[in-house]
Amino acid sequence: MTVVANADYLKRRREVPTTESEWRFALPTDVHFDETSGRLVVLDAQRSRLQIYNKMDNYLVPQMNL
């Protein structure tokens, strides 16, 4: 992980009052869906991270759209 590997990055991160902006993608560059595991993988190049989402097996499609 970039934060653990880079001491300067970790120091600057501690100076930020909130990390709310990191909850969103900054520069998503690729999306891949792995059908065997049911995972969606999104590459965010700006933040140097992979965001992995697991598909819910018991998800029901809504009956009507209100």
Features:
single chain, 66 residues, alpha+beta, three-stranded antiparallel sheet, 2 helices, elongated
How is the topology of this model organized?
Layout: H1 2-5, H2 7-14, E1 28-34, E2 39-44, E3 49-54
Antiparallel strand pairs: 1-2, 2-3
Written description of the protein model:
By secondary structure, the protein is α+β, with helices and mostly antiparallel strands. It has helices spanning 2-5, 7-14, and strands spanning 28-34, 39-44, 49-54. It contains two helices and three strands. A three-stranded antiparallel β-sheet has the order 1-2-3, with no helix packed on it. The protein starts with a helix and ends in a 12-residue tail after the last strand.
What's a concise summary of this model?
With 66 residues, this protein is of the alpha+beta class. The protein has helices at residues 2-5, 7-14; strands spanning 28-34, 39-44, 49-54. 0% of the residues are buried.
SSE pattern, N- to C-terminal? HHEEE
**Percentage of β-strand residues:** 25-35%
Strand line-up across the major sheet: 1-2-3
Sheet with most strands: 3 strands, antiparallel
State the total count of DSSP E strands. 3
- The average pLDDT is 83
Helix fraction bin: 10-25%
N-to-C CA distance: 42 Å
How many helical stretches?
2
Based on CA atoms alone, the radius of gyration comes out at: 17 Å
The SS-based structural class is: alpha+beta
Give the low-pLDDT segments. Answer: none
Q: Overall 3D geometry?
A: elongated
